[in-house]
């Protein structure tokens, strides 16, 4: 059995010819293919920071719970974008995302609580469209436990 050795060092064929400067110009995308869109960042946001943003009107709030739960009650001003929603629902929210970005408002997604992964799923889908978002992982349960209003 032989050993396979690998190295990060450039091979002689990877090096620039003697006397030639290495190119620092990035390669252009192949003809006909647009460059890949910027992927948005996903981060978390704590209760106090989210509450402050919400009170100042500096958050676009997205409820990732199923529509039935949203209809029973949600954080005031929240829009519903359930995890189960298809691409058309995500596309219909695109104007909201762009407006929030133009107004320097954070996109904050929540679901039921710390054990619910729906907010992360929705946040990643939004990120693929190039928008940054924050996950309020304490979610709906923490909002209610704090005695805050609901719609």
Report what the structure shows.
With 151 residues, the chain is of the alpha/beta class. It has a domain of 104 residues: 3-Layer(aba) Sandwich (Oxidized Rhodanese, domain 1). It has six helices and five strands, in the order E-H-E-H-E-H-H-E-H-E-H. A five-stranded parallel β-sheet has the order 1-5-4-2-3, with helices on both faces. Strand 4, helix 5 and strand 5 form a beta-alpha-beta unit. The N terminus is likely disordered.
CATH topology title of the domain at 42-145: Oxidized Rhodanese, domain 1
- pLDDT < 50 runs, ≥5 residues: 1-23
Mean pLDDT: 83
Helix/strand/pairing category: alpha/beta
Compile the SSE list and pairings.
Layout: E1 42-44, H1 47-55, E2 59-63, H2 67-72, E3 79-80, H3 87-92, H4 94-102, E4 106-110, H5 118-128, E5 133-136, H6 139-145
Parallel strand pairs: 1-5, 2-3, 2-4, 4-5
Keywords:
151 residues; alpha/beta; Oxidized Rhodanese, domain 1; 5-stranded parallel beta sheet
Question: In brief, what are we looking at here?
Answer:
The chain has helices at 47-55, 67-72, 87-92, 94-102, 118-128, 139-145, and strands at residues 42-44, 59-63, 79-80, 106-110, 133-136.
């Amino acid at each position: 059995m032989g050993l396979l050795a690998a190295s990060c060092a450039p091979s002689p064929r990877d090096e620039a010819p003697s006397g030639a400067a290495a190119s620092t110009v990035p390669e252009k995308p192949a003809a006909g293919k647009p460059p890949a869109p910027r992927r948005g960042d996903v981060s978390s946001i704590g209760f106090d920071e989210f509450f402050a943003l919400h009170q100042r009107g500096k958050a676009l709030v997205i409820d990732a719970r199923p529509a039935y739960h949203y209809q029973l009650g949600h954080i005031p001003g929240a829009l519903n974008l359930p995890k189960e929603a298809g691409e058309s629902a995500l596309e219909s929210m695109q104007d909201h995302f762009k407006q929030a970005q133009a107004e320097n408002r954070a996109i904050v997604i929540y679901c039921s609580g710390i054990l619910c992964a729906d907010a992360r799923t929705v946040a990643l889908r939004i990120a693929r469209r190039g928008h940054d978002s924050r996950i309020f992982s304490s979610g709906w349960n923490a909002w209610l436990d704090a005695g805050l209003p609901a719609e």
